[in-house]
Amino acid sequence: MLLRLGGGLWAAFLCLVVWTQHPYAPARRAVGACYRLLSVMAGEIAAGRLQETVHRQNVRTAIERARGLALQIDAGHASYGMRGRLIASLAGAERLFTAMLAVEHLVETRGLDFEARGTLAPFLPGSAQMLAAIAMRAVNYTMLVVFISAQFIVVTEMLMPSQGIAWMRVLDNTLGSVIGLLCAFTVCPQRRGQDMDGLLQTAVIGNLRYVSAVLKREDPVTTDRVQRQAGIDTTRAEFARGSLPVLGGVSAVGERATQAHALLRALRRLSGEATLLRFDISAGLCEGDAQAGERWSATATALEAGAPFADIAQKIENGDVMAEIAALERAGRKTV
What we know:
Helix content is 74%, strand content 0%. The protein has 3 domains: 20-135, no CATH class; 141-183, no CATH class; 196-326, no CATH class. The chain is built from 14 helices and no strands. It is mostly helical and 336 residues long. It has helices at 2-18, 25-46, 52-71, 79-110, 114-119, 128-135, 141-159, 165-187, 196-215, 220-240, 255-282, 290-304, 310-318, 320-326. Helix 2 (25-46) runs parallel beside helix 4 (79-110), helix 3 (52-71) runs antiparallel to helix 4 and helix 10 (220-240) runs antiparallel to helix 11.
């Protein structure tokens, strides 16, 4: 009885004093992770290391994960203010991500001089958002495991004294990991029978709609929504072909995988050019092209209705669509 009471008090002490748990901590850490990844992205761009697939997959996945956690918070009662702050922070992360995409595309297509390189990564770390990210930093998981494992071994030794408790714990963790891997690769493997052509077509449709929204100068809320969906569709297609960020964005092999990679890379470049145009339009350097926007919107609708996919995919892969956007007249700078 005394051991049970002591164990309960010790657990309460760890949870309430040593390792305080906050109900909104997962969502706050997820939002903070978005800004940390944006900081890494800015630093990589400033250093001239362009890893567009890795950056876009990482940041887009982090933003969507944080959005899902924030939306799980009850909007009523005392949670309303916290949910609002998290959503506002995510909106800021989305805007910074859009800016980084434009900068990355600009660096990739037009280069980055020494002066511009120096102005980038002090840019993000010196902002209030980065300070918020530091305050929301994730707790070291290794330290958590050290505490939990030590508590498990001590309590077990007190209740059932025996030799080799620690090694039993190590063996239990190792065996569980091996079984989990076997189940993942044999019992429940990721099926390769995905409709890759369908995923690619959805990604093309999403990016064409984003191009259309930019050219037609849609309102910012609509354009943000279309851009987000295009990014999700493209990332989903990249993950489906096995292009995990940890592998540098390219892991699938074969002729079909090579073709898919080429199209997805062209879509990323098209999205970057559209984002750059969006900032030029916002700055009053370009008027856009409503007629072209309507044409690409109609093309996206036709693809969704079952129109042939190969022709437009070839135009995107060859850079014809991106070249059309880049050729739009901009005031104050030369066109490409």
